[in-house]
Amino acid sequence: MTRRNLNPDDEFAALLRSVRRSSWRWECQGEYAVDRPEVERWLAGEPAIETDDDRAWLAHLARLRADGIPFQRVRVYPDPINDYLAWMRQAVGPNVAAGEDVRWLPEATAHEHGLPGYDFYLLDDERVAVLQFEDKELAGVVVDDDPAVLAEHRAWRDTAWPIATPHAEYVTMAR
After folding, report:
1. Cα–Cα distance between 62 and 100 in angstroms, integer?
2. Domain containing 81 — which CATH number?
3. pLDDT tens, residue by residue, 51-88
């Protein structure tokens, strides 16, 4: 059993690249500071700017898909959604096209099912990477492979995934 803190930049990126069988993300923050410039551009009616980070992430998703490794994400949203999530609803399209399976879950439903209030990845069903935020910025990543921690996070995944709405259906519902 190992629990360790990772540098949220280099070490975390390497961890994500090390996935061999599956990657599952629980995403429940109301917004993320890293995306704020793009949200502001979108609100101003300006076109999106694809960054090196965007291209690298899409390439990562495409590599996973080519290797037959699923990348799944459940995105929690409040009702009504905020500007950030309205932006994300359309901005996640390239991720879906690259192979990410994104689903959406109402915040009230997440609470009803006792799902956590923090972001995490479940990697290869062997490691949990808990994302820690300060002022909407990624401040740390704690990786844990303790069997009890894994069982708890797998149970949350197994609860959330079947009740979350696939992205294409959610976008249609949200119109």
Report:
1. 8
2. 3.30.870.10
3. 888 899 999 999 999 999 999 999 999 989 999 999 99
